Amino acid sequence: MLTECGWDDAEVDIASRLGACKRRWDLADGGRLGGGFRSAVFACSAPGGEQVVVKLTPTPEEARLEAAALASWAHTGAAVRLIDADISHGALLLALSMLPTVWEPRMHRADDDWRARPAAGTGFIPGSPPRLLAGSP
Questions:
Q1: Fold classification of 9-95 (topology level)
Q2: E-strand spans in 10-126?
Q3: How many CB atoms lie within 10 A of CB 7?
């Protein structure tokens, strides 16, 4: 599968891909973050001291699609901020975001149109009905 994406063995290696991203974006070393299911994610520091995340996706196509989705949601505040993307390395440069792990449901008044306000940082999609995450009461 990775060969079909146009990556050779050196580019597929996580360490070499991360190294290329650090050079491109002039990032200081950071540690690997937990929680990535299909992607490898790393906390880094940008030149001005801003804390950022490098996300290495399994394929360049996944990076391209995720970058497009994040860019389209940028104005809502409902998604992490995309700073830049390096599609050839399957990498996204993201603003560090401390998102809650569980969305707290609340009662809505009849005149309170929840669809009109995206819930910044909660991870739910505006326009969809509220739903509990697995493991929530």
A1: Phosphorylase Kinase; domain 1 (3.30.200)
A2: 32-33, 40-45, 51-56, 82-86, 91-95
A3: 18
Query: Of residues 19 and 117, which shows the higher confidence score?
Result: 19
| pLDDT, average across residues 18-40 | 89
The CA dihedral of 126, 41, 53, 20, to the nearest 10 degrees, is: -130
User: In the 8-state DSSP scheme, what is residue 29?
Assistant: P
Summarised one tens digit per residue, pLDDT across range 84-110 is 999 999 999 999 876 555 445 444 444
Every domain of the chain with CATH number 3.30.200.20 lies at 9-95
d(CA 14, CA 102): 30
How confident is residue 9, by pLDDT bands cut at 50, 70 and 90? Answer: low
**Separation of alpha carbons 18 and 65, rounded Å:** 20
Instruction: Give SS3 for 17.
Output: helix
The whole-angstrom separation of Cα 15 and Cα 100 is 29
| Strand-pair category, 82-86 with 91-95 | antiparallel
